[in-house]
Amino acid sequence: MLDKKNTQERPAFHGSDIEQIESFYGIPKEQIVGFGANVNPLGLSDSVKRSLSEHLDIITSYPDRDYKELRKIIADYCSVSMDYVVTGNGSTELISLLISHRNAKHALVIGPTYSEYERELALTGGHISNYYLPETRNFQLDIDDLKTALQNDVDFLILCNPNNPTSSALKQEDLQKVLVECKQRNIFVMIDETYVEFAPRVEEITAIPFVSAFDNLMIIRGVSKFYAAPGLRLGYGVTSNQQFLSTLKKYQNPWSLNSIGAYAGELMLQDTDYIQKTRNLILSERDRCLHILQSFRYAKVYPAYGNFILIRILKEGLTSFDVFEHAIRQGMMIRDCSSFEGLPGEYIRFCIMNPKDNTRLLECLAELLA
User: Fold this and answer.
1) Taking the CB of residue 80, how many other CB atoms lie within 10 A of it?
2) What is each CA distance from 137 to 133, 147, 193, in whole angstroms?
3) Which H/E stretch holds residue 301?
4) What does the pLDDT look like over 264-306, one tens digit per residue?
5) Where does residue 342 fall: left (phi above 0), alpha (psi -120 to 50 degrees), or beta otherwise?
């Protein structure tokens, strides 16, 4: 049995580390419900599966080097010009290309957030500062305070919206204020909208409508979470900065996205039944989970715009690792958030799954937090 007080011996698991969990705890991975990966519980769309199985012979040909059809569908999906769209081998490739070729001298990262941003920034050798969202404001950004943090030498700002792990989000009014301020200061802004399609009202928080007006902006999205296809490695970026797009494409590997990935992406973004079914499930179950959690004595629950919920543990002596272990021993993997910098206290995060699994997790958490 692990000594829970010795944090140096605690394993740190990513949300998708099912195999490591299986090995460490001796629980068959088939018996583990993954509440840590933030992936759509509906799984891959049935219609996409059928169409892919019927068109596997597309791998006998190279994909279109410019991915014209896929980019056209993405442009229609986002209501932007096709000339603004670039595709990539997952959003990770585009984040890496964007960060490496902006070559920021001083990047400001709004956190607590996804660690990959900082890892990529570190490779460029520039200075990195963290601006942590205040817990006292339920991790909502204070625009005026951010302006004071944008020092004269900051030339790159990174924002995840909705943010992981807090599930908080900026609405368009505040996004516009940030973009105006950054435009005046010649700061390039990257907004990661990986979770935007899970928001109660996507049109309230997406920065897509600002792309044409702000050439200091690039929005990154993908299909890993909402479309339950992390293994497909399809991401896309949207920016009106044609000079930067040209540079990015110059350094991007040709055919970075394979034929199946390109074809699947075309199908996914047009699958309106799947999109609506997903939103119906996530919105209703997220509201139900939040309502139940708000009655727990030893849990502080924050407003959620992503498909996941952040909880602060208020019970003295009870750690996030304790709660993680309590859940995993019942076959449910949540996220112990102790590895996230900028979370002042003990936090856990879990994503929305099917109603039966959500109920089982809520009952498990109630044993410690209610």
Assistant:
1) 19
2) 8, 17, 22
3) strand 299-301
4) 999 999 999 999 999 999 999 999 999 999 999 999 999 999 9
5) left
